[in-house]
Amino acid sequence: KIPNWKYAVILYIDCLVVVLALPLNLVAIYILCACIKRKSSTTMLMINLAVADVLFVCCLFFIIPYYFMANVWVFGLFLCHFVYTVFFTTTYVSTLSMMAISVDRYLAILYPIKSKVWRKKIWGCMASAIIWVVVLIHILPINLVNLINIDPAHNTSEASSCYDHFSQDDLNFIESLRLVLCIVLYVIPLLVTSYCYASIMKVLLSKNVLNMQKEKKTRAIKLIIITMLIYLFCFGCYNATHVIGYVSHSNIWWRPLSLMFNTFNCMLDPLIYYFAS
């Protein structure tokens, strides 16, 4: 039985993303790993982003059945915590990886000579590792609360929900944690990314850039604009629920819909970062 319209829409989008995003990102990883001989920091950051997207899509193999069965989680307590830990970790690894790529491009364009030392493969690997550590430090506390909510009418984990209903104490903790995630892992990276790409656009639009073809310059500017729109649109809706939920002290009903926009990101990343770059 198909659940209400909210979850029917999410199901359709999630299935579409799985079908498209998984092969796109796997192809991107193959190209970046096997076809590029001299790997730079940019290459390693793109691989990191693609790996995060693949792991994100893998989480959908559990979330899709959950929504299809009208919010009945049948995979047990451990997988509830594990799947949503990976789900949110990969979401914010994506935001920080996109920020790191923008910084990398900023250094390459504004300081092409000085930045050569810092734009090597090893620094890309180190940046990727730091990103995972920083995100995990902020995400793991989510497991301090009970994510499973068992239906009292059945009193069995076979009729439980996952990350949908919380006790008041757990909700207070989750609200505070979500606000921290929004500020540290979305707003700050958004500001850094915006500054980097604004600086790059300023250079590209200046008359001093004479050795770059107009077509390439226009294409680069379009990619920057599209990237920023993706950053704002795909991640902004979900992170907005963190702020609204904290202010209203409630679990926003349209949070699952906002998570749907997150799934678009892993489908668009390979098109913007790998195949169009």
UniProtKB/TrEMBL annotation:
Entry's transmembrane regions: 6-33, 45-68, 74-101, 122-142, 177-200, 220-241, 253-276
GO cellular component terms, semicolon-separated: plasma membrane
GO aspect biological process, one term: cellular response to fatty acid
Gene3D superfamilies, alphabetized: Rhodopsin 7-helix transmembrane proteins
Membrane topology: Multi-pass membrane protein
Keyword Cell inner membrane: no
Subcellular location: Cell membrane
Name of one Pfam family that matches: 7tm_1
Domain G-protein coupled receptors family 1 profile: 24-273
Molecular function GO terms recorded: G protein-coupled receptor activity
Family: Belongs to the G-protein coupled receptor 1 family.
Protein name according to UniProt: G-protein coupled receptors family 1 profile domain-containing protein
Species the sequence originates in: Petromyzon marinus
Taxonomic lineage from the root: Eukaryota, Metazoa, Chordata, Craniata, Vertebrata
